[in-house]
Amino acid sequence: MNFEELCASYLEDIYVNVKESTYVRYRDMIHNHILPYLKTCSLEDVNLYMLEELKRQLLKRGRKDGKGGLSPKSVSDILSLLKNIIYYGQNHDLNIACRPECLKVRREGREMRVLSPEEQKQLCLHLTKHMNRTNMGILLALHTGLRIGELCGLTWENVNLESGWIKIAVTLQRIPWKSAHIDKNGQKTHLVITQPKSSSSCRWIPIPEPLSPLLITFRTKPEDYLLSGLNTPVEPRTLQNRFMAVMRQTDIKGATFHTLRHTFATRCVESGFEIKSLSEILGHASVNITLNRYVHSSLELKKKNMKKMDAYLRSL
């Protein structure tokens, strides 16, 4: 068996055990990044030096001028999958002597784009002045931290305005077909509605009180989607494009739809929000994710917190 055959066996084994989006992602990572380098290698020839070289190739492979390759995050994900494939082979008593545990990529923290309080106020004023279903959705995401797929998949039956809760049970995304398939319209991709990325992502989110009257004005039938008011959804890519149009209209630079989630979490931390509750509202798998990602407060917040020590220092 060579490495290509091992990968094929691995994909066949996980086919019915993972979400469709996960399977497609793994398949594409294997065919686009792993097999071009390891395709014809026999399993007994796979060694750590070879995998380190693959890592280097992925990091430097990119633009035609050679200045840049895949991001450390992307390479780390590819190597994680590669390790799982090797462990899969070893667990099936195949002759793979390589131990890939020490194969790692250094990932430097990337500064998150967060709207400043002034930008947030400017955005809210614009959305309120030009209110429609899309802008209502953007406003809701800004004040609840909803992911774009969660918002696109949200139907009115999961928005309880009387009790003040939103139930997040599904996410909407467009992915390639699981098999080599093109539909009757020539599309190589299709929309899927699945459970969110983890069990913790299935959650209940309190509706901010000031948003309730706004939501009431747009409410339609329970089976209708929040963003469209119909029984067909708005695609994440469409919503992202509409959001970018709003960014151009407000002259806010460098923001994506996910910036709204970062902004919500950052404002919560700045206002002293209890971290465990914030973690559950965001749908994180653990509090540590919330702490590592968002509890790196601004200089202004640090200054404010240090002032709490003033009275003690004066008493010395």
From TrEMBL:
PANTHER family: INTEGRASE_RECOMBINASE PROTEIN MJ0367-RELATED, PHAGE INTEGRASE-RELATED. Keywords: DNA integration, DNA recombination, DNA-binding. This is Site-specific integrase. GO terms for biological process: DNA integration; DNA recombination. Residues 110-307 form the Tyr recombinase domain. Residues 1-90 form the Core-binding (CB) domain. SUPFAM superfamilies: DNA breaking-rejoining enzymes. The lineage of its organism: Bacteria, Bacillati, Bacillota, Bacilli, Candidatus Onthocola. GO terms for molecular function: DNA binding. PROSITE patterns: CB, TYR_RECOMBINASE. Belongs to the 'phage' integrase family. The keyword DNA-binding applies.
